[in-house]
Amino acid sequence: MNLILFGPPGAGKGTQAKVLQEEGGLIQLSTGDMLRASVAAGSDLGKRCKAIMDRGDLVTDDIVVGIIAERLDQPDCANGVVFDGFPRTIAQAEALDKMLATRGASIAAVIELKVEDEALVGRVAQRSLETGGTRGDDTPETLRKRLEVYRKNTAPLLDFYRAQGKLTSVDGMAPIPEVSGAIRRILKDLKG
Ligand code: ADP
User: Domains (ranges, CATH) in the chain?
Assistant: First the structure.
């Protein structure tokens, strides 16, 4: 089963994707983590993406669609994946539907983590403290930019997936275990 965790920066997508990976055996595919790995490795791709990420903009659709397509072909993804931070534009969502269809797969559900803006600011500040500022984009200014990009480019995906009948929302303001519980119930309903 393939899922998408959806929400603004700091909504808790990565946290819940890790829970789904540990409990449900789904593979977490985080484009943010993959891009940061490229930056850390100093690859050409990383060099092209670093400045864009540091200022809170989106890297091009071609780049992220390419890295996801490559990763999906690895055997561990066959049992299902949880997309975290992808897709972020309508073009990415359309490319994802196509790439899954050619592999005989599809998205089972899109789970939106709903969190208020003020809470996001606090969470990202906390993460920045915890990671010692290793993420160049976890500053208040860049977060503001990322939220703006989220609203403009990514939030329209909510309607895209609602139209496909795949969207469900959970209260992302609740404590982590409660959010995990709400997601578990959605998956149980899906499996029938
Ligand atoms: P966030 O906590 O803001 O959701 P991510 O770790 O998912 O952060 O992404 C960090 C940055 O990586 C984004 O601001 C963007 O520059 C880049 N990025 C990640 N995923 C994508 C994507 N699907 N499309 C374009 N850019 C992406």
Answer: 2-191 (3.40.50.300)
Q: Is 88 a catalytic residue?
A: yes
- CA–CA separation, 137 and 145 (whole Å): 10
> In the chain, how many H helices and how many E strands?
9, 5
Give distance in angstroms: CA of 57 to centre of ligand 1.
8
Instruction: For residue 50, give the nearest of 62, 63, 66 by alpha carbon.
Output: 63
Catalytic residue check, 127: yes
Q: What is the CA radius of gyration of the chain?
A: 16
Task: Answer yes or no: are the C-beta atoms of 87 and 4 closer than 8 Å.
Answer: yes
| Residue 7 near ligand 1, beta carbon < 6 Å | no
Give yes or no: 98 in active site. no
Question: What is the model's pTM?
Answer: 0.94
Are the C-beta atoms of 115 and 172 separated by less than 8 Å?
Answer: yes
Return the DSSP state at 59. Answer: P
Distance CA 113, CA 32 (A): 17
C-alpha closest to that of 8 among 131, 165, 158: 158
pLDDT digits (tens, 9 = 90+) for 10-46: 999 999 999 999 998 999 999 999 999 999 999 999 9
